[in-house]
Amino acid sequence: MTTFVDSINHYLSSNLTQCAYDLSKLLYAQLPSNENRLLFAQCLYRVAKYDECRSHLSALPPSEQSMNLLGLCILATKKYSAGITQMTSFVTSHKNSGLYYLLGEMHFHLGRRNEAIRCFESALTIDSNLISAQLRIIEMGEVLYRNVVARSSDIIPFSYEQFPRRRLFPSEINPQRESENTIDVTAINGYLKSCVSIEKGDIINATTIMKNEVNSIIGSNEGLFLAARISSIEQKPNITVALGRNAARMYPFAMSLYPFYAEALYQLKSWKELHALAMKSGEYRWCYESWIVLGFEALGLNKNSEAVTCFEKALLIKYCVQNELYLANALMKDKQFQDSLKHYRIVIQLNPNNYKGWCGIAHASLELKLYSEALSASSIAIGLSNTIESLTTGVIVSMKMKKYDQSIKWISSLLNLTQSVEIRLRKIVLLDSVGNIQQAIKDIKVLREESMNDVTVRLVYARLLKKTGNIQMALEEYETLKQLFPKYRLALENEIEKMNNGVIGEEVLAFPEWIGY
């Protein structure tokens, strides 16, 4: 029997799961003891026979090992409510950090934020090295974390690629790799503090922590991931793309950066590189990151309903706040505003401090003409984090509701963060809205000189000329635009016809979608 068990453990540690399953099934048939049944259940779990595994576990007397395995089966089969009922009493009486973590995951998947946080905190009280619990708490917007300590632990080594979890059986430990179980305490604590700052939108603090405390992982996949998150919040897609390229070259099978990399390529309209990334990641469709990349490629091809499907599949593979946000954004793009609002609210339910979720609620509410909710959500987003995204959302909403005093305040803060063409155009729109047309004309002329190949800038310039009665100059600008941008020829001719008929049109600077084509 000992030879059988050793062979099964060897197969499991070598990831030869089918061999382990066949041998454990034979062993249990010959010697149906509780120990052999538990080993057989482990093999059933490893070959994804979750219901059969649960059936065998229910026949065993409860133990920490059997309940740990039961929890994993519940998460795999998504039977969270039943799992909570089945496990809560045992977990609270045995004080095992791994079991608290699994119970917390069940509550998290059901959107029970407070219960989930309590479970994760209980797990960390027992073992602060359970980094997966720390990351979940941070993901839900809690700013506290427990320091990882330098001591022996049975936690799988730290890697963002696969969050650490408790080891179930000795057969999961590969003696040749046991030295990898050591962790750089300072770097990991720095990583966790950086994650907290990023969730709060405090990019300056996150960058400082990375420089001072995370030196040893700066060039690692985890360090690149942190940097990509920071550049994404700062809306610097060029930097995010550079980090993504570097990560793809150094860690070809590490996909944690792919979602940010793909989103940055989408923002930059780098369609060829995005397609190449989708082709590469499409080989790993069991990874949620692959579906996110495919989703952004679909958005780039204006296949919005396909993008929604991709993000839904990503969420099925890995349920987390960020994937809920991706899906909500795709639904928004597909003009499914009601469903989009529903998913943005789930984001806020899981993490009330997620400013991106509040921005999404503001945009979706604006489309559904829920103006008071839109204004409230945008104000909350800005109160949580003065980022480009939150402030831009505030400007859009306040201008739509003609609350120009608030718009002026937020546009001033925006211009301190970025001098992008879009934000400068929004300022010009605001100047026109409050009656300062002369300053608007002056600013648009300067911007036109700097951005001669930007169709939106040139069109706003033509419309402002039209609005101020400079009809001949406006006509010349429209004719130039027709030659430079044939894609918009019919729409431009329609505007010229309106102008020739004496109709100036209120679309001159209707923000945010003023171009109308």
UniProtKB/TrEMBL annotation:
PROSITE patterns listed in its UniProt record: TPR
Keywords associated with the record: Repeat, TPR repeat, Transferase
Domain of life: Eukaryota
GO CC annotations, alphabetized: anaphase-promoting complex; cytoplasm
Gene Ontology biological process terms in this record: anaphase-promoting complex-dependent catabolic process; cell division; metaphase/anaphase transition of mitotic cell cycle; protein ubiquitination
PANTHER family to which the protein is assigned, alphabetical: CELL DIVISION CYCLE 16,23,27 (PTHR12558), CELL DIVISION CYCLE PROTEIN 27 HOMOLOG (PTHR12558:SF13)
Official protein name in the record: O-linked N-acetylglucosamine transferase, ogt, putative
Pfam families associated with the record: TPR_2 (PF07719), TPR_8 (PF13181)
Keyword Isomerase attributed: no
Molecular function terms, GO-annotated: transferase activity
Classification via InterPro entries: TPR-like_helical_dom_sf, TPR_2, TPR_rpt
Entry similarity comment: Belongs to the APC3/CDC27 family.
TPR repeats: 97-130, 321-354
